[in-house]
Amino acid sequence: MTMGAIFSLALVFCARCGVAQDTPLISGGVAFLTSTNGGNTTYQPLIEPLLAAPIGKHLLIESRATILETFSPDSNGYDHTHFAGFTYLQGDYIVSPHFTLVGGSFLLPFNTYNERLSPVWIGNFQDGPLIASLGLLSSGSGLGGMLRGSAVSRRKYSVDYATWFSARSDNEQFNAKRSFGGRASLYLPGSRLELGLSYDRQLQDTQENFYGAHLWWEPKDTVFRLRSEFARGRHAQGYWIEADYRTQAFGGLNSWIGRFEPLFRMQQTFRRDNVASDGLPLTNVQRADFGLDYNLPHNTRILTSYARQFSSAGDTNIWETGIVYRFLFPTWKGKMK
Amino acid sequence: MNKKYFLAIILGALALPLPEAKSQKTEQVPPNPTDKHSPTSNKPQPHEDEGQRLFEAHCSRCHTAPEGFSPNISGTVVRHMRVRASLSQHDEQELLRFFNP
Fold this sequence. Notes:
By secondary structure, chain A is mostly beta strands. Helix content of chain A is about 5%, strand content about 60%. By secondary structure, chain B is an all-alpha fold. Chain B has helices spanning about 5-15, 20-25, 50-60, 75-85, 90-100. The radius of gyration of chain B is 18 Å and the shape is globular. In chain B, about 35% of the residues are buried. Residues about 10-30 and about 30-45 of chain B have low confidence and may be disordered. The interface between A and B is large, with 73 and 49 residues.
């Protein structure tokens, strides 16, 4: 069944259920990205639509897909490749205040990047961290069930969790490895600090454990954000630290200066052996990314960055630019109560 | 690569924004206050402070707020956020009040 047909069926089904503020929505991002690595420039137009459709008071169907075209240089000029596929398609059933049961194809909750920052309209840099593939078991998604929610929520702290099991799937759209894992996070609203630990284990082929830790900090009363992750697998490990900031000193965030967003990301990867099974570079890599985004009105962002990557395989410069538009609208004009 | 040079890049880039960051008051608000759909366009409500706090704590941590959206989808947005951000039931209700004062 095509992606469009599945989206349409979901909408038709949910059309009978949406009332008041619960009208199904379509969101996502449209982007045009360019990347120049070692003198070769790649162009990539893409769209990432997201559908969220509530059914009744406890159920939510949600899905995200990616459709992109990549134009890369080759010996004859430019060649292009096409990709279209689901990122996830899941049903969420809110069982109780502390438990939500998720079924279907879901993003693996390992560290933070995959679930929170991977949408094109959210990420500050157009490419993910080098260690993003660690713990994501190739596809980044699982096919099975997940239990997640808020374990404790107080004014001074909150703890949330996610634990999941995935079956093996060789389906082209919903590829997944037999695996299990979980994540727990502690958030301290007073200091705006979040700490989390992740673990997962691949249960098919070569069985491997992956460990992750993340730390996010957003000092109160500032628009400065610090995000970081560490991940360790059997064959490699690494970390990334990202900082971004917007100034309000010259007329607020919506002044033309306030819309600038300088960024910095530092990352390193370390190989523990020469078995390349995790998507990380074959040699140790150190990379510094310097970015400058501009937040235009109407949910549009311009992303620019320069990265210098150091490794024994050769040092390279990576220049990236892109423009991203984020859309969000109801699937139809619903009636308010 | 020279390790001292490498370390200097890291520390320099991280240290630069901090002094100014500490001296500024936040203005990280959800949709444009002039927008008719904005949750901040109305007079302060009893739940607005709590909703604003939760919005900044749970939503703005990951992404910039969209510039207004139809009230018809506010429930869907919050339910989606409840699952994605593992919000408690109380947080979900407060955010919904914040979006629909």
